[in-house]
């Protein structure tokens, strides 16, 4: 049990009814999970309003309620606390409840449209290899040093974040690398966390269903930098036109990285091959197993961050060359017929273009590129025709298929993707709704030396259709089909 007064420390209260000098069991923001003596926080969400469930929470045993508006009926013996923002209160209370765990380790936030998982996962790998106890909060998984936890978000809710940071404290973790999504910032999931540094990778088209305008999306990302403390570092990619915008109002120490512009950390790509690339970072050559210009940026961000966190430059370079690719990011398989299948999580126009650019620069002859791609349902619709355009323009054949249609009609999503195809590319496209069938067709069409790109789902091991998730793993499926192919 914890004192409600202590948990509320730092939360700005606009009204109180009842006593805050009570003890509560745990914090809950979903009435369905409330237990005896909990404090329930009512959050105004995108689908419903937590204020509707206050009575339900009390009937299940809640002893205290935190809300943005006092309910009409006040129940005797229950403490009600009114706050400006339920989301902000949740984050500060979660941090207090777990004894402010972000203060006991070095927390680095990574934000940007693409590259968050790659940069955070590789920083985790690098610091592990350097001998530290490390934590990771990413789209793929949460790691408390060597222990893996499942996750359903890029940036989880504030309770989940602080609970895992607390576990990291117990395990003696010194550094934690955490993806910070724009949804996470907007919903204040990271409010109250003490960051040692923040990294900005890039900003392109995504999530315009949620943020409405690109400026709003950019300004949301910028909040991570605006809120950094003075002693923290802010490291941004200034080849991206928003790299300097992120630094505009921060109090933190400012650092930049770039391949093209003048910056604190600079790199050059000397050689690019299928199995790796040779980079020159700060004057020294280093071999990276991860290929493509975008990974040169990722390696440079990792180099800069590791240096700012105190590692020696030469040690960082040695460790960079040992880093392994992240699951579902340019993960490839070469069949006995020498057909190459690449599974990549590219699910934004920019990421798709980058991966196809990389594949095209690696082509040595007249091998064909066959792209299998779709777009998720219930998410930013405006990127669908753009991705249709890129896939059909940059591949010899583009097969449009389902990604995770979620609750949308798959055929409607496919029509929206097709709408971006220019008349001269129409003959290059096929539409096959069933993803396994689409992958199979790509394998049947491919000849020796051809390259198949399966984009959009990367590491995911399920497909969500009409709200139901079934097992589905792009890499496993393409590998099986190619191994059983009789050409
Ligand atoms: C749009 C969005 O981000 N929604 C998130 C939000 O839920 P919401 O606002 O829809 O909540 P709601 O369903 O309206 O409910 C409002 C409140 O009432 C409560 N409630 C509801 C029903 C009930 O019976 N009782 C009850 O108390 C809910 O627990 C909630 O506190 O808050 C929830 C709790 O933190 C999140 O799980 C949920 O993420 C949904 C599932 C989601 O899909 N989010 C995605 C878009 C997301 O966050 N993605 C980003 C970025 C990924 C990327 O970069 O690609 C991420 O960080 O993962
Ligand atoms: N620095 C980068 N710039 C542009 N594209 C990148 C970069 N790094 C990775 N990508 C591409 O974007 C895809 C997604 O990469 P990654 O998972 O690291 O991004 P993310 O920001 O974590 O995305 P999400 O938040 O949706 O999980 C990769 O599979 C690759 O195609």
From TrEMBL:
Catalytic activity from the UniProt record: UDP-N-acetyl-alpha-D-muramoyl-L-alanyl-D-glutamate + meso-2,6-diaminopimelate + ATP = UDP-N-acetyl-alpha-D-muramoyl-L-alanyl-gamma-D-glutamyl-meso-2,6-diaminopimelate + ADP + phosphate + H(+)
Record: residues binding UDP-N-acetyl-alpha-D-muramoyl-L-alanyl-D-glutamate: 31, 154-155, 181, 187, 189
EC number of this enzyme: 6.3.2.13
Residue numbers carrying N6-carboxylysine: 221
Record-annotated Mur ligase C-terminal domain positions: 328-458
Keywords: ATP-binding, Cell cycle, Cell division, Cell shape, Cell wall biogenesis/degradation, Cytoplasm, Ligase, Magnesium, Nucleotide-binding, Peptidoglycan synthesis
GO CC aspect terms: cytoplasm
Annotated residues for binding of meso-2,6-diaminopimelate: 379, 403-406, 456, 460
Pathway(s) annotated for this protein in UniProt: Cell wall biogenesis; peptidoglycan biosynthesis
GO terms classed as biological process: cell division; cell wall organization; peptidoglycan biosynthetic process; regulation of cell shape
Motif (Meso-diaminopimelate recognition motif): 403-406
Ranges for domain Mur ligase N-terminal catalytic: 26-98
Record PTM: Carboxylation is probably crucial for Mg(2+) binding and, consequently, for the gamma-phosphate positioning of ATP.
PANTHER family documented for this protein: MUR LIGASE FAMILY MEMBER, UDP-N-ACETYLMURAMOYL-L-ALANYL-D-GLUTAMATE--2,6-DIAMINOPIMELATE LIGASE MURE HOMOLOG, CHLOROPLASTIC
Designated name of the protein: UDP-N-acetylmuramoyl-L-alanyl-D-glutamate--2,6-diaminopimelate ligase
Naturally occurring in which organism (per UniProt): Cellulophaga tyrosinoxydans
Annotated gene: murE
